[in-house]
Amino acid sequence: MRGRDGLAVRLPAVAGMFYPADPDALRGEIGRCFAEAAEAAEVSEGPGGDSGAARPEAGAPKAIVVPHAGYVYSGPIAASAYGRLAAGRDLITRVLLLGPAHRVPVRGVALSGAGSWVTPLGSVPVDTDAVRDLARLPGVVIDDRPHLPEHSLEVQVPFLQTVLGRFSLIPAVVGDASAREVAAVIDAVWDDPATVVVVSTDLSHYLTYEQAARVDARTAAAVVAGDHAAIGDRDACGCRPLRGLLEALARHHRGCGIELLDLRSSGDTAGDRDRVVGYGAFAVT
C-alpha cells in the first residue's frame, strides 16, 4: 500500500493479537495499562509512602527502555515508562525506535523505507530525511522486509500516539549489530532536544518465575550501572539495541542517569509461573 506521497505505508501486522485492533478497545486497553502501572507504583512505595526508590525527574526522559509483549502481559510495565514520556508531549516531535528482529534475519541495523506507519489509532509519518542520512552509517541499511512482520516496534507506536502530540518516527530493527554500530545511530540524533530514543526489549525467556526474578534483577542492575558488556545474549531478546544505548551513554553522554521504573514478569501479570518472560522498564534522564 502507498500513501498520497507515493511512499509505502507500513500497515499493522499484530493488531488484534498483541493489542486490540478496534481503536476504542485499544484506547481502553492502554488506559488499563496506565492504571495498573500507577497501582503498581503505589504498591512499591508501601504504606509509608516511600520505597527508597528514586523520585521521578522533572521533564521527560531522553530515552526509555520498554518491553514488547502483548499488552495483557507487558503493557503495564511499558506504561510506567510512557507515563514519564508524557511530560514531553509538547516538546518531543521525533522518536528513534529500536527493537530486535524476531522474524527476518538482519545484519546490522535495518531502517524502514516507508513514508508512514499505521496503527488503529492513525498514521505516523516516518522522518524519511533522517532515514536517508542514517543509512550512510556503517552497518545501516534501508530494508522494509524485517519491518513488515515485526512486533517489537509496532506495539510501541500506539503508546507513543497516546502520550505524544504530533511526531515522526525513525523505525530501526536491530539484528546482528555491534554495540558501536547501534550507538552510532543513537549518537546521530541524540543532540536534537526534540528527539527521544525508545529501545524495545523483553528480558529473560521461559525460565521459572524464581529463576527469571534472579536473572532479570542481575540484568536490571547492569542496565542501571550502564554496563553493556554484562548483558548476555539470553538476558534480553533486544540485547543488541540495549547494549547500543548503554554504549552511547558510556562513550558520549556520561551526564545521564538510568532509573529502573518497573521489573516484573508474565508470572506477575497474566501468565503462569512455570515458564515466564521477564519485563523491565527504564528511563534515561
Summary of the model, kept short:
The chain has 285 residues and is of the alpha/beta class.
CATH fold-level topology? Protocatechuate 4,5-dioxygenase, Chain B
Biggest β-sheet: count, sense, barrel?
A: 9 strands, mixed
SSE string, helices as H and strands as E: EHEHEEEEHEHHEHEEHHEHE
In DSSP terms, counting alpha (H) and pi (I) runs of 4 or more, how many helices? 9
Features:
285 residues; 3-stranded mixed sheet; globular; alpha/beta; Protocatechuate 4,5-dioxygenase, Chain B; 9-stranded mixed sheet; 21% strand
Can you walk through the features of this model?
With 285 residues, the chain is an alpha/beta fold. It has a single domain (11-45, 57-206, 221-236, 252-284), classed as Protocatechuate 4,5-dioxygenase, Chain B (3-Layer(aba) Sandwich). It has 9 helices and 12 strands. The strands form 2 sheets. Strands 2, 3, 4, 7, 8, 9, 10, 11 and 12 form a 9-stranded mixed sheet that branches. Helix 6 crosses helix 8. The protein starts with 8 loop residues before the first strand and ends with a strand.
